[in-house]
User: Fold these one by one.
Assistant:
Number 1:
Amino acid sequence: MCTSILYTAGDCYFGRNLDLEVSFGQEVVITPRDYRFNFRQMPALDHHYAIIGMALVQDNYPLYFDGANEEGLGMAGLNFAGPAHYFPVDDHKDNVSPFEFIPYILGQCKNVVEAKQLLKKLNLVKINFSDHLQLSPLHWLIADRSGKSIVVESTVSGLHVYDNSVNVLTNNPEFPGQLTNLANYQSISPEQPTNGLAPNIKIGFYSRGLGSRMLPGGMDSQSRFVKEVFTLQHAPAGASEVENVTNYFHCLHAVEQQKGLDEVAPNTFEHTIYSDGINLSTGTFYYTTYANHQINAVSLQHADLNNNTLAPFPLREQQSINMQN
């Protein structure tokens, strides 16, 4: 399970929570412009936009969980078990395996408009990376620094591209169903409620925050979707990069999963392995991990983007506590 968002506060910040029961040894990886991407059914990409994001490097191939390119286009793949469906090769379409999808889009597109054009002929095909690394059932959030985002879902009825006015994605059900479900929560507000129950009777408030008393708080994907839409829509804009990055991570951490609360197998619990976000204008990639909530950063601008070697940055997992006495 996962949550991905686009937060706008002057600049746009894009990223996600990765919620799983096991870590894959992922790290922050910069792919330079000249790094060769070999695709299974499409021509190789020798020259493309530089990419930074969270990836597992396997056989010198960066398997990106999420990332963004130097032009400010971001993309994240989230679990979509059940509805997700991948197809056989179609000679009349551009056949891309889901493990190639992020570099295929981020390597060639500057923004959501260009991504939509590339998606018109796309066919997500069922080709595993290897026998040991099989495809995951995913759908994707794609966003750019204009503040726009789309959702891409491949189901049995075909490839669907949805404009995303709320800039949030979690997991099941299919995205239109998530939007429809928001209608059940339109009365939620940061303000104290008005008395519609008995307008002629004075009813006191026993607590602050009663306007949000019906806000879902579960670990399930629909609850996280509703809570994150509410959180993101009311998130303040800061006066500096530090304030905005802090606000951004508060948005993601509002729906993070703690160990011990979401059992997926006997004595096995899903949790938020990492949270990340990239400033789509500056190319600075920020992250926290479950064990370390200190915000760490890797800058795309500080890297050599014209070589042909991947640049990995292992995650800093050890908690850093500032002792004041």
Number 2:
Amino acid sequence: MKEKTNYFEVNRATWNKKVAIHSQSEMYDLAAFKKGKTSLMSYELNALGNVKGKSLLHLQCHFGQDTLSWSRMGAKCVGVDLSDEGVKLAKQLNAELQLNAQFVCCNVLDTSSHISETFDIVFTSYGTIGWLPDLKPWAKMIAERLNVGGTFYIVEFHPIAWMFDYIDGKSEMKYHYSQDEVIYDEYEGTYANQDSKMVSKEYGWNHGLSEVINSLIEAGLQIDYLNEYDESPYDVFPDLVKTDSGMYKMKDQKFPMIFELKATKI
């Protein structure tokens, strides 16, 4: 486990650097967010509906925009993230916007060691599970933190998208669909500001849909649905085209770009 801890520490250092860049980026548009614009996308809004009065745990929340967006909608929220700087900014935004969300800095796999309460909803989205070497402890933690009858919802980039290396605006199939071996990537810039001179050093893992589904079932959750979509709400892959709906698609779409899954603790 010592080796995996080192992976997490490298990732933490990278995400700490990203916070300053992302909070100034057009993608995150913090000025509009502070004025009341939600950071949530149509998928999660449609899936979770009216959250007023519900308790919600947001896993891997970055600097808390989605957590605070759910809080604005009336949910009692707790956000968790690995990044000290992310949690620090999230707490500042929470105070500035006079909301009542709470934030905890920890490895998402250790959430149950830091949070004992259970929730009506556990939520995670867009670029989260690829940072985890094994989804079984992740799913076990989700089941531990859910109330009986509670909802788990994930919307995430499709595992096929992570089979490719995206370099200089080109994509090359390089990795296995469900790869146990760690993938190390080092590059300049971030998805929210590709012109940044920051060097990202990242360790990640690829997880196929069967691994996602089976880990949740094994943890005691009942799968309500799995949907796949040929579009992304974020312009984070090369040569995407914006559609009339405001989503992004590839010029020659051959595979889904995102999936969503909803499950219930039984």
